[in-house]
């Protein structure tokens, strides 16, 4: 079973797990112009060679003795589109830091014990409500992060899937980006430390 290096795409940077330090280290590029409602890494496309070069230098400081034959387990925001997923994978594969990638959404990592649950998270664009069963996203709803109704989302969390309507299904509030104050009454809060602890050890066969 091949161990993978966890990589988190947050709302503002890339976080890579440092095995020697047993913690995540953040990578970002200065001078990148952010655009409202657009993920930060979109700017990498305009400076792709530079971005990949600096990421490789950053990674080599964390893993000086590792070759480019690494496998990255990439954890992305819950509203990542199919095209964005492709770009993220290609960014790492072409950076000279890994030979393979496996990708999953944050919602899929919130519990190792519960076979099914509801996840609530917030990106720069959307509040995302998802139903997870056996590590698969079975249903999703998206709400504009600049204009949403908390009570409506909480009510929707109870009817997002027929399984949820008829079974006692836990709700996890993903507060990794420290932006979920509105939803603290909606379910169990997953703090940044809790989230990172859950994925600090991960293998590719589970993705």
Textual characterization of the structure:
The protein is α/β, with parallel strands linked by helices and 207 residues long. Helices cover 23% and strands 30% of the residues. The protein has five helices and eleven strands; from the N terminus they run βββαβαββββααββαβ. The protein has helices spanning 48-62, 82-93, 150-156, 162-166, 192-199; strands at residues 3-9, 14-18, 23-27, 71-76, 100-105, 116-122, 126-133, 136-144, 171-174, 188-190, 202-203. The strands form two sheets. Strands 1, 2, 3, 4, 5 and 11 form a six-stranded mixed beta sheet that branches. It has a five-stranded mixed beta sheet with strand order 8-7-6-9-10. The radius of gyration is 17 Å and the shape is globular. 32% of the residues are buried. The model has no long low-confidence stretch (mean pLDDT 92).
Shape: globular
How many helices? The count is 5
Q: How many strands?
A: 11
Average pLDDT reading: 92
Uncertain runs: none
- From the N-terminal CA to the C-terminal CA, the straight-line distance is 12 Å
Q: What amount of the residues lies in strands?
A: 25-35%
How do the helices and strands follow one another from N- to C-terminus? EEEHEHEEEEHHEEHE
Structural classification: alpha/beta
List the helices and strands and how they pair.
Elements: E1 3-9, E2 14-18, E3 23-27, H1 48-62, E4 71-76, H2 82-93, E5 100-105, E6 116-122, E7 126-133, E8 136-144, H3 150-156, H4 162-166, E9 171-174, E10 188-190, H5 192-199, E11 202-203
Parallel strand pairs: 1-4, 4-5, 6-9, 9-10
Antiparallel strand pairs: 1-2, 1-11, 2-3, 6-7, 7-8
């Amino acid at each position: 079973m091949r161990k993978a290096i966890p990589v988190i795409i947050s709302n503002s940077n890339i976080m890579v797990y440092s095995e020697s330090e047993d913690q995540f280290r953040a990578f970002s590029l200065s001078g990148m112009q952010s655009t409202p409602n657009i993920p930060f890494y979109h700017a990498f496309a305009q400076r792709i060679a530079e971005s990949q070069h600096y990421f490789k230098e950053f990674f080599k400081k964390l893993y000086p003795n590792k070759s480019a034959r690494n496998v990255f387990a990439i954890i992305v925001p819950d509203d990542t589109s199919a095209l964005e997923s492709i770009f993220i994978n290609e960014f790492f594969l072409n950076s000279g830091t890994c030979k393979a990638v496996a990708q999953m959404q944050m919602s899929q990592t919130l519990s190792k014990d519960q076979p099914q649950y509801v996840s609530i998270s917030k990106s720069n664009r959307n509040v995302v409500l998802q139903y997870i069963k056996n590590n698969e996203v079975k249903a999703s709803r998206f709400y504009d992060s600049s204009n949403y109704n908390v009570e409506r989302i909480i009510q929707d969390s109870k009817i997002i899937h027929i399984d949820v309507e008829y079974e006692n299904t836990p709700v996890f509030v993903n507060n990794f980006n420290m932006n979920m104050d509105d939803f603290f009454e909606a379910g169990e809060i997953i703090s940044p430390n809790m989230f990172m602890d859950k994925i600090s050890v991960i293998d590719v066969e589970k993705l």
